[in-house]
Design goal:
Layout: H1 8-28, H2 33-76, H3 82-95, E1 105-109, E2 113-126, E3 129-142
Antiparallel strand pairs: 1-2, 2-3
Length: 150
């Protein structure tokens, strides 16, 4: 009698190799790429939503920084009139991509310093979601105190 190598252990090992080999063929045919495409689409949708939600808040931060610089400049240069300062605020708003009305800008000068307040509205628009936001940035800068010699 001839000895056969068809013992159950050898058949089981070869069956596992065939199964593994078929899984590799399945991936080579492109069926695994569908999951990757779905993941990339979901990732891009989430990235777009994050961008749309953060855009108004980034504008608020940038406008606050510009107003702080303008208030400091106004304290250091008190000889400029209010119209000039308001035009500078409107130009700063255009740099940040905000459409401000001069009526939404409040500028108050006192002996102690200057206070600038700006109000605007912005929207978050997504295909299935809409939110209306209102922002107000108020900056107050004190005039430098003169040192008295004593």
């Amino acid at each position: 009698m001839e000895k056969s190598n068809d013992s159950p252990l050898v058949v089981l090992k070869s069956y596992r190799k065939i199964k593994y080999y078929n899984k590799e063929l399945w991936r080579q045919k492109g069926a695994g790429a569908i999951g990757c495409i779905v993941f990339v689409i979901i990732f891009l949708v989430v990235l777009y939503a994050i961008f749309q939600f953060s855009r108004p808040y980034i504008k608020r931060s940038m406008m606050g920084s510009k107003l702080s610089n303008l208030a400091e400049w106004t304290v250091e240069n008190p000889h400029y009139d209010d119209e000039f300062i308001i035009k500078a605020i409107l130009n700063a708003a255009k740099e940040v991509s905000l459409d401000l009305n001069p009526e939404n800008i409040s500028l108050e000068r006192t002996q102690e310093g200057v206070s600038i307040s700006v109000y605007w509205e912005d929207d978050i628009n997504l295909p299935a979601y809409h939110k209306h936001l209102e922002f107000e940035v108020e900056i107050t800068k004190q005039a430098p105190r003169e040192k008295t010699s004593g």
